[in-house]
Specification:
It is built from five helices and 56 strands. The chain has 598 residues and is of the alpha/beta class. It has an 18-stranded mixed beta sheet. Strands 29, 31, 33, 34, 36, 37, 39, 40, 42, 43 and 45 form an eleven-stranded parallel beta sheet that branches. Strands 3-4-7-10-13-16-19-22-25 form a nine-stranded mixed beta sheet.
Length: 598
């Protein structure tokens, strides 16, 4: 009986537990469903309230009542605000991936306040403003599938473009004829043309600050006037300036702007600049700067190494310019000398665009430039003792390049050694021409000059009438000291002149090469320690030069070293006094003996 009651109790409790568990499970499931439904409604409300995935471009034209800001804000949840300074219209949190050729977001003819913020746009053109003012474009992610422009402002003023991330667009930010626009703290990378470009003569007073620009043909390209650049970090490109004089001299670009972590130097209307003004330069931009010197610099990977406009009487030498689009670009430059510099692995070594006259290009080497060593549209320039090797074109004259003189240069292994589109250029000086490694003429009289001209490629049929059949050997002439001049303890001063191809090294020895002394200047003093160690007699001072072709030239002069007598001089009459003293002593001894004998 007790067992039966116990069995009933256990069964009842088991049933209660099962029912309770089932009810709890059903309640829990219903609660989870309700929670998920509520969460879904919240997520749906969140999408509706602040984030939209749109498939059609946005066009707002405030001059068209059917497309103006007011109607757009009334008709669409993704547009809010009233257009005042305190309550600007806002396009926020919009995501677009569209294949239309129209801009993803286009605003026309607007003067009200508005913001485009936190949008992700993948389209041919991301954001385009036309005749539009008072906008803030902030915190957007933009890429162009057709390598077009990410953000484009045309005839638009007083806009701010801040904190945007732009990638894979041909041009990141472009402003055409706009003023007082601010471009700050944007990251723009991996484009084909320009990171930031400001175009048009009506563009002025734009402020470009604290942007990071990576891998463009030109990081920043400026037209217009009075733009200010500060704290921009550029990698793999640089700054380029338009050619108009009044524009080029009007900018404010300080050295807080860097390319490849090296300062960018911009000077306008300056004279007597020297190496102290270009310390560790990553790029140099000069506008109307004169009587100045740029030397002993290595510039690489900055797009454009040196840009010179409206400059004269510059001395530019001992530069190494590598891995650039353009080593040096110049226009409207006169009476400048470019010498002893290396242009290696660029697209163009030097591009003389127009208006350049009476410049000397001497003793430079242009090696492995993918397009051309020097390309010139200029007149009355001298090209002497340069090496052009392994370029597509060595030297290229085009447009109105005339009256240029080219001689004693060496052309080796270029696809086209030279190309000339004009008739009035001279490829020899009337006595000597250039060395061309593909010249196949004869030299029957062994004077070193080919018997037939060398034909210059191009449209005009120009010729080198005196081609060199052998590589020109470098030469040294010794002006001082003169032969058989006698020197004492002070070492001789020297002065030499040289003639070599491209970059050269000069050294001398006074002990038949046991010790060699490299020199940079063509005048100086023989090493004093070496002179002190030399024995008296005839001394041979021999100078050497080795140029870019590997050829060596030498010249010597024999001088006399005669050290002064270093013996201490005696007292005048000392020997006579000594003799007299000895004679006196002997006389005294003799007298004493005689006296003693007496």
């Amino acid at each position: 009986m007790k067992k039966t009651k116990l069995l009933y109790v256990v069964s009842f409790l088991t049933l209660v537990i099962l029912v309770s568990s089932t009810i709890f499970t059903i309640w829990l499931f219903e609660d989870q469903v309700l929670y998920k439904d509520e969460l879904g409604r919240k997520e749906q409300n969140l999408m509706t309230a602040g984030s939209w995935n749109l498939t059609d471009p946005i066009l707002i034209d405030d001059s068209d009542p059917s497309k103006n800001w007011s109607k757009t804000a009334n008709d669409n949840d993704w547009c809010s605000g009233s257009g005042t300074w305190n309550d600007p219209y806002a396009l926020k949190n919009i995501w677009m991936n569209i294949s239309s050729f129209d801009p993803a977001i286009e605003i026309r003819n607007s003067n009200v306040y508005f913001q485009i913020e936190n949008c992700s746009l993948f389209s041919r053109i991301g954001i385009a403003l036309s005749n539009t003012n008072n906008s803030i474009i902030n915190g957007n992610n933009i890429s162009s599938w057709d390598w077009e422009v990410a953000i484009f402002l045309s005839h638009s003023n007083n806009n701010s473009i801040n904190n945007n991330f732009i990638w894979d667009s041909s041009t990141g930010i472009k402003i055409l004829n706009g003023s007082r626009n601010r471009i700050t703290s944007n990251l723009v990378k991996d484009g084909f043309e320009h990171g930031i470009i400001i175009e048009g003569s009506d563009s002025h007073d734009c402020f470009i600050f604290n942007n990071t620009l990576i891998n463009f043909l030109a990081g920043i390209y400026l037209y217009g006037r009075s733009h200010t650049l500060s704290l921009n970090s550029i990698t793999g490109n640089g700054i380029t300036l338009g050619p108009e004089f009044e524009e080029m001299i009007s900018y404010d670009i300080d050295t807080s702007n860097t390319v490849n972590n090296k300062p960018i130097y911009y000077y306008a209307n300056e004279t007597y600049l020297n190496s102290e003004d270009f310390v560790n330069a990553g790029q140099i931009l000069l506008a109307n700067c004169n009587n100045s010197k740029i030397d002993n610099l290595k510039i690489s990977g900055s797009g454009l190494g040196l840009l010179l406009g409206y400059c004269f009487n510059l001395q530019i030498h001992n530069l190494t310019l590598t891995n650039l689009t353009y080593g040096i670009g110049l226009f409207e430059c006169y009476n400048n000398t470019f010498s002893k510099s290396s242009f290696l692995n660029n697209m163009m070594g030097i591009w003389a665009l127009w208006g350049c006259e009476n410049n000397n290009f001497t003793n430079n080497e242009f090696i492995n430039n993918s397009h051309v060593g020097i390309k010139s549209a200029c007149n009355d320039d001298l090209f002497l003792n340069n090496l052009f090797q392994d370029n597509e074109y060595g030297l290229y004259f085009y447009l109105l390049a005339e009256r240029n003189l080219v001689y004693r240069n060496v052309f080796i292994n270029n696809t086209f050694h030279a190309y000339d589109e004009e008739t009035l250029n001279f490829w020899d000086n009337g006595m000597i021409g250039n060395y061309w490694d593909d010249y196949n003429g004869t030299d029957l009289n062994f004077d070193g000059i080919g018997d037939t001209p060398y034909n210059i490629s191009g449209t005009t049929g120009n010729q080198d009438n005196f081609p060199l059949v052998n590589l020109p050997c470098p030469k040294i002439s010794i002006m001082s000291p003169s032969e058989n001049t006698t020197f004492g303890t002070m070492s001789p001063e020297f002065e030499i002149s040289i003639q070599g191809i491209g970059i050269y090294t000069i050294w001398y020895t006074i002990d038949n090469g046991i010790h060699n002394y490299t020199i940079i200047e063509l005048g100086g003093t023989i090493n004093l320690t070496a002179w002190d160690n030399a024995l008296d007699g005839f001394i041979t001072i021999q100078f050497y030069i080795k140029d870019s072709t590997g050829s060596i030239g030498t010249s010597l002069v024999i001088v006399v070293k005669k050290s002064p007598d270093t013996t201490t001089p005696g007292i005048p009459g000392y020997n006579l006094f000594t003799l007299c003293g000895v004679c006196g002593i002997i006389s005294l001894i003799v007298l004493r003996r005689r006296k003693f004998n007496v």
